[in-house]
Amino acid sequence: MTATPDILELELFRHAVTSIVDELELNLTRTAYSPLIYEYKDYSVGFLDADFRLVAQSRGSLPLFIADMGISVADAVSVIGQDRLDPGDIFLTNYAPALGQHLNNVTVATPVFRGGETILGYLCIKAHWADVGGLTLGSVSWNARDIFQEGVQYRGLRVHRQGEPVPEVLATIQANTRMPKFVMGDLSAQLGACVLGLRRWDERVAERWSDAQTAALTQGQREAAAKAMERRIRERLTAERYHAECLLDDSGLAGTEPLKLQLSFTVKDGEVDVDLSGMPPQVQYPLNAGWPAAMCAVRVGFKNILLPEAPVNEGHFDAIRVDAPPGTVVSATGDAPMSFWNTTMPTLIELVFKAIGEQHPELVPAGHHASMNAIALAGKRADGSRWMFIDTVHGGYGASQEADGGGPHKTFAHGDTKDIPIELMEARFPLICDGYRLIPDSGGNGAHRGGDGTEKRFEVRADGVRAEMFVERTLDPPWGLNGGEQGRPGEIRVMFPGGNDWKAFTKAGQLDVPSGTRIVVRTSGGGGWGQY
Amino acid sequence: MSLDEETVVRIAADIGGTFTDAASIGPDGYLYIGKTLTTPGRETDGIIAAVGAAGVPPEAAKLFVHGTTMVINALLERRGVKTAMITTQGFADILSLGRGNRPEPYNPFYIRNAPLIPRDLRFEVVERMAANGAVVVPLERADLERVAEEIRAVGAEAVAIGFLNSYRNPGHERFAAEVLRELLPDAFVTTSSELASQWREYERFTTASANAYVGPLVRRYTERLVDALTVAGFEGDALFLDAGGGAVGRETIQSAPIRLIESGPVGGAIGAAHLAREIGLDKVVTLDIGGTTAKTCLIEDGMFETLDEFWVGGYTKGLPVQVPVLDIHEVGAGGGSIAGVAQDGRLTVGPRSAGAEPGPAAYGKGGQQPTVTDALVWCGLLHPKCFLAEIDISRDLAAGAIGRLASETGLDDTRMALGILEIASNSIAAAVRQQTLERGHDPERFSMVISGGAGPALACKIAEQVGLSRVVFPQSPGHFSAIGMLRANLRFSNRIVVSRTLDDMNAEDLARDAKALQDKIAASISDSTNLAGTQRVEHYATLRYLGQDHTLRVPFDLSDLSTALATLRETFIAAYTRRFAYSDANSPLEMVEMEVAVSRDLPSDIRFGAAADTDGEAGDVECLFSEADGFVATQTLLRSNMEPGQTVAGPALIYEPGTICVIPPGWEATKSETCLVAEVTR
């Protein structure tokens, strides 16, 4: 190999590293216990270089986790001390300030050594754990008022040392969750993937390239990625200033003040400067997100429009700077609760689209439902064990210059994420589905119509069940573009047993839903594109 | 092979996208092959022509075995019939709702392919099963009569019936099918539960919709084919290859036509399994490299694995079909794959293919971009004089295309040409690896059986990348699939839903259920031919740790009922540990399904004759294998001139009609009775 890797060597290196993260992903999904991992794909598998920059991410990783593990892993390594990490060590982190998401998202990472001396990078597997303690089963609740009510934080905790499990650490983790079977099963799946990854690294990378070559190749990939994004920025973002805003329904508790989200960016010399200073201050309710999360959402937005086809590499985002003053609802600090950090994320992604679309409507689709439409139902079985059903209901997607809106899908924050089949839900949980359909004409009108929203009807068939639910963006539903009309907003309605009226909810925390309660989730349709 | 037995004259035909291949066993026991261009819309003409080209007269044959891409093509090109669906009230949108996922997570314009049955042809009836199989709302005949009338009015030729929770209790689906068949005697009627038996309503309903959609087509096609064979003088039994790996009669395939999907590659797997047994290899990975894609499959102890998931149109935008299909990994890299620079600056090879038109630059039919074939030509690994007679290969044109891309990317020509082969091999090696390593197998213990037009030229290179040290080149690798079909056995399988933990079931009940299913399958396959040998029965169980979703399918030995369940647990734990490098001895196991396969042997003997001589060049040519060594003198010889036992050290090119086996430096090839085996020497 020459001193500066050429295009062929870069591609062969990319193949080698990608084949590893993709294999680990497969291993993770096949061995995980929680449907949040094997169906919902609430995970990310990646390889970071020695400077914690993402080199490769597995195909099925959640888009919202795009290149976001570097900050967490860097923090964990700084706590441990880089020189004190040994080959075979595996550590955990979900430290809130470095994560910016709910504490369930736990990253398991292991350093990749060559010859036992220098660290070449880190294999990382982030996955949503079913429960990390806190106020409620599942750890995620609208009732949380600070981060400590949302579970336990680990910050560089080593579960393996030099290839050996540390039993007291594993026991401590087990003692801190209400769902030990799921969490320990999923942790095993993450650990197994780390161990396998190290083996694959030796076989596919270390056999072929020296340390110096690997460093040159990761650098070369990063530069090529940066150049590709810069070219697209110059080609597509031909204006100088962009701005978009949107209203959220409330501040995280039904009936509180709506929040106005604003995003601006400027484009100059192939670089983008994103300004989130117009975001509202952080709130006492748990819809805050940390800056690392907001940065990812903005990146997802630009990647969709500028460089969707390229395999993820952090170099793509060298030219996209995201600036947020500390203390906003998307750059929360201190003890801010973040259970539903994802509330703002689909909208934040889409504010990038909206800002671009106002000047280049041919480049982006009209608005999508942008709401998690989450429904989490939990209870106890007769034998005392706990169950929890989580789903996010699909909504309509926006139309574009080329076609009617697609879907229904989950949000732009999701990717290859599947819902829980009705038959599986009915077999595993004391729940019934009374109907699941598209809502006709709920997509916005236009030269191209928005995709329709959906209606899913649930019935609870056990006592002692509690619900966490929400829909968003009902005040400011999916926008039309270029003269297209907006989509019809979504809603959640509940009829309690014995009652005969449907009560509307937008957000509900720990709502008692006795046996016989019926819940209807309706999602919004997508916006239309162009005048009808 | 035994020469004592009386030869059974038989014919196999494999319809592919470009070519229709025929392979026949003549009265002398020797293999004869023929090839014609596929004739879309008139496939039977192509079959008769290919059979004619092979030369064994149909009137002499007792058996005709057929694999075809007809079903998959009808689904991809949406050439099926007008199809209606009947489903549970409240769920008519299931086919449109899908699972909500976007397999292209950063494509803001993503749209999945449309369902096969449009919304206005989906009808709801009042009925409901609970997840435990209890009837919650009974299904009334009057409701079905109403729907049948509506279906008659819209003129649908086929009806798919899909009810919620029918995987647990198919009673309502069966009743509906019975009534519909009575009221609409001309319609093709199918139920979701007879095809797939797992929870996942979207996938199961889609499977039923696909089966109904192609049902009348397959009925007409198989009738047309049998008629054409009869006209040609054939009086034997016609069999069809099920995508799961067995041959079945016309009646079986007409009731479950979706099981014909992707039946072409099955011939290759059967052929490789036979070859592996003949030459004593217990671990084999097959690799078939065509013009556009490469396909790979694993064979252990002479058996191949099946999956019950297939994506019509690919995973990204396609529709799921849950029927047993050969477990094949496919990757978009083959001889025609085009090399270029992607918009994000990466050097890529495939998935775009030059196909037959314009074809690789070297064909001189206007192709300007370099392909894998061009790189092989440039490196001297497809020598112009020894290539297919009908195509004129130009090394200059190949060099021109490679030179242009080289200057665009700043590489020199040598590095460019080798790089194209390297990247293509890398993609293919990743698929091969997925078949071995990712199942917990050590690739070094596997041998590769190579086939397809571009396969023998790249095989050893790919083997090196995966870490395999042995490559088997069968005779006539370009006809490998059709030849394999000559060795298919009668075989059909079906499944029973179990959904219970091993601890609370007993082997006697399972054995009784298995026997009932076995008798049913045996009765259905035995009518198709009287050439079949003794019946064999296999049992499998799909298991998982209670609480998991993904299952593993393992053999289930029911011969000793007192130990059957304990043995099954051990088998599962061993398989699970091998695959996932971890297991849990204490967790309860859940059996999701039990599978029963019944098979009966059909004649399989083949005598390989001396292949016709090729217009090959004897002596040395110059070939490029590595950047460091540059072009090196490479000996060439004709495969038909090699004696059994003869060994040739690489670098060498071994010619046979339509194919060149490339033996790189560091490998040596030995000819045996049935094949050529190359092994790593360094």
Short structural summary:
The complex is a heterodimer of chains A (532) and B (682). By secondary structure, chain A is an alpha+beta fold.
Main pleated-sheet profile of chain A? 7 strands, antiparallel
Count of β-strands of chain A? 20
> What's the story with the biggest beta sheet of chain B?
9 strands, mixed
Helix percent of chain A reads 25-40%
Description:
The complex is a heterodimer of chains A (532) and B (682). Chain A has 532 residues and is an alpha+beta fold. Chain A has a seven-stranded antiparallel beta sheet with strand order 2-1-5-4-3-6-7. Chain A is globular. The termini of chain A are far apart. Chain A contains ten helices and 20 strands. Chain B has 682 residues and is of the alpha+beta class. Chain B is built from 16 helices and 35 strands. In chain B, the strands form nine sheets. In chain B, strands 13, 14, 15, 20, 23, 24, 31, 34 and 35 form a nine-stranded mixed beta sheet that branches. In chain B, strands 3-2-1-4-11-12 form a six-stranded mixed beta sheet, sandwiched between helices. In chain B, strands 6-5-9-10 form a four-stranded parallel beta sheet, sandwiched between helices. In chain B, helix 2 (70-76) packs across helix 7 (201-231), helix 10 (372-378) crosses helix 12 (413-436) and helix 11 packs across helix 12. The longest helix of chain B has 31 residues, at 201-231. Chains A and B meet through helix 1, helix 6, helix 7, helix 8 and helix 10 of A and helix 3 and helix 12 of B.
